[in-house]
């Protein structure tokens, strides 16, 4: 059997067992990087997998994407072997090296204030969304999913009920962009308290918009994250701030919380991230290590009524 024949059976089976986003990602990688090269070959060898990986890198794919292609192709080979169509592979691909840690740029407080001032000068639905990201630490996907009714003035909270992802779906007529509404974890569904200063800044928007409209588009359809990133870049340029990406807003928010004395458990609730160990890995360098002060405070509290 050729890879094209095996792939057809693999695709039919995986469509039933995988999430739509995962399935579409796999299919897109296969049809973009694998099938044009070896669709008519079979059974496949280690050299075929290495060739696919190296060709993807040569064509400009990231190292992670190239290794993903190799991993998916290995999965298809094992699938064919399990069905008895191809021999069981007696070789393994080398595991990819650990991916580089994401780098973040910490905004200064002056830069944060400059962005808020610029938003105040140019109040718009999209800029209000940027303000929320800056002052609550919500992610891009969560921002895309926010509607005006999620700003709850009565409860003094921002309701985060999931996120919107963009993924690509392969159809007979080609590649289609599709939106998927989901949540990462149970912890990501949360209510973020809004401080009086935030409520005062947002008060002007109360009752001005239809509740069901997405904030970033002010429409019933969500906004493409690429559009939001371009808008944020333009906003930073007007505020004379350089070298900042949207993801840096969430990172900076977390650091400001830690500087204000927020512990990791509380930070996890605010960010909707249940992985406290990961938070500690990211932000531990910003935690003040003052064991003597801690011991002094503990003993003072312990003996307060005794002495």
Describe the structure concisely for a colleague.
The protein is mainly alpha-helical. Helices cover 52% and strands 9% of the residues.
Short key terms for the protein model shown above:
about 300 residues, three-stranded antiparallel β-sheet, 5 strands, hpI Integrase, Chain A, 13 helices
Describe the structure.
The chain is mostly helical and 307 residues long. It folds into two domains: 3-82; 109-286, hpI Integrase, Chain A (Orthogonal Bundle), CATH 1.10.443.10. The chain contains 13 helices and five strands. The chain has helices spanning 3-17, 20-38, 46-58, 63-82, 109-121, 125-136, 140-145, 196-202, 225-238, 247-259, 264-271, 276-283, 291-302; strands spanning 151-152, 157-160, 163-171, 174-182, 190-193. Strands 1-2-5 form a three-stranded antiparallel beta sheet, with no helix packed on it. Strands 3-4 form a two-stranded antiparallel sheet. Helix 2 (20-38) packs across helix 4 and helix 6 (125-136) crosses helix 10. It is globular and about 75 Å long. The mean pLDDT is 88.
């Amino acid at each position: 059997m050729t890879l094209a024949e095996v792939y057809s059976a693999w695709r039919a089976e995986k469509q039933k067992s995988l999430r739509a986003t995962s399935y579409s990602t796999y299919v897109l990688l296969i049809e973009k990087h694998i099938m044009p090269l070896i669709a008519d070959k079979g059974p496949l060898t280690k050299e075929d997998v290495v060739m696919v990986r190296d060709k993807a890198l040569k064509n400009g794919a990231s190292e992670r994407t190239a290794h993903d292609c190799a991993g998916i192709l290995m999965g298809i080979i094992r699938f064919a072997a399990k069905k008895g169509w191809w021999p069981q592979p007696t070789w393994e691909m080398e595991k990819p090296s650990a991916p580089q840690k994401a780098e973040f740029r910490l905004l200064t407080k002056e830069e944060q204030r400059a962005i808020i001032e610029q938003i105040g000068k140019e109040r718009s639905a999209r800029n209000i969304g940027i303000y929320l990201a800056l002052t609550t630490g919500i992610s891009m996907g969560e921002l895309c999913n926010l509607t005006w009714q999620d700003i709850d003035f009565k409860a003094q909270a921002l309701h985060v009920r999931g996120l919107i992802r963009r993924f690509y779906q392969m159809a007979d007529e080609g590649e289609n962009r599709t939106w998927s509404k989901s949540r990462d974890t149970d912890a990501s569904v949360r209510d973020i308290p809004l401080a009086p200063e935030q409520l005062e800044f947002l008060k002007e928007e109360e009752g001005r918009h239809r509740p069901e409209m997405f904030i970033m588009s002010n429409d019933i359809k969500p906004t493409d994250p690429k559009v939001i990133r371009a808008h944020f870049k333009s906003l930073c340029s007007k505020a004379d701030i350089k070298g900042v990406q949207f993801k840096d807003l969430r990172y900076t928010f977390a650091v400001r919380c830690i500087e204000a004395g927020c512990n990791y458990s509380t930070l996890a609730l605010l960010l909707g991230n249940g992985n406290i160990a990961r938070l500690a890995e990211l932000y531990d360098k910003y935690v003040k290590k003052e064991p003597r002060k801690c011991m002094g405070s503990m003993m003072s509290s312990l003996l307060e009524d005794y002495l």
